[in-house]
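Dear colleague,

Thank you for sharing your sequence with our group. We've completed the structure prediction you requested, and as agreed, I am returning the results in plain text so they can be pasted directly into your records. Please verify that the sequence below matches your submission; if there's any discrepancy, let me know and we will rerun it promptly.
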Amino acid sequence: MTTVAAYAAPAAKAPLERTTIERRAVREFDVLIDIKFAGICHSDIHQAREGWGEAIFPMVPGHEIAGVVSEVGPGVTRYKVGDRVGVGCLVDSCRECDNCRAGLEQHCTQGMVGTYNAIGKDGEPTYGGYSTHVVVDENFVVRIPDGLALDVAAPLLCAGITTYSPLKQWGAGPGKKVAVIGLGGLGHMGVKIAHALGAEVTVLSQSLRKKDDGLKLGADHYYATSDAKTFEELAGSFDLILSTVSAPLDFGAYLSLLRTGGALVNVGAPEEPIALNLFSLIGGNKTLAGSMIGGIAETQEMLDFCAEHRIGAEIELISASEINEAYERVTSSDVRYRFVIDTATI
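Please find the predicted structure tokens below.
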């Protein structure tokens, strides 16, 4: 066991504070990572405040981890000391079920082990990236290509794969019209990736406040959903709509924007249930779907794609002492577009 510095929430809704945690000794197939940067995801806030249900405390959030390998176990073959690596939302799975064998470890039928707020196979709670070091099995570590700076790569480990996976699955590409609801931490990555895939991209945001940003990020069009005319003008327009917001929406209104056979895919996760008139799905043979993250292989594919297309997150680098302020700013949509913690300040 090794004692390392971290920032943790001692209880639900409590401010995060500096503390120390124990990391396990490096086992045969483990990689010890010197964390350089950790992104702040809205999921961190939902869990630290028990918005998604009962959680494990003390909690060290963070599943957007970028760093450098500083030690490897004797059985490790994929990585060596000095490699630039990342860790996303999961650190283990059963590895034997149909989903795991298919590269869908995030849907492990035995339950994936989350990077934090979870119990590992050793019976100990997992602690995330708001810390100086982490120990992870090599099978759940990904390589960060040289073309990506570590600070802008960190948010790709959640925000990047969360948007890349459904865009790929639902065929975003040349000749397809894709809309992204919300231009935040997830949404701005959705715009960048959909544009790089070759789709015609529209941002649907509450206001036109971020229009210039959206167009610079790769959007072809930008509309305010607070304007009722938007829904009239865009009716039946899109092959795919990606909802990245964590607030409940009028799904009937957004489904009306789909072409026949189109899909509205949710990656944002509101804390409240939604209401839906099923005729909005039946008329037009439409799909309302959800998507989580991607498996390990797809996460590596996403990183390689982002390096090839020179895509990183738009970030605001902060010190660890600013985490609580950053949480408040995220909940009030005051970030462009992802806070990243410089873990040297922990």
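Summary note from our side: The CA atoms of residues 6 and 280 lie 47 Å apart.

Kind regards,
the structure core
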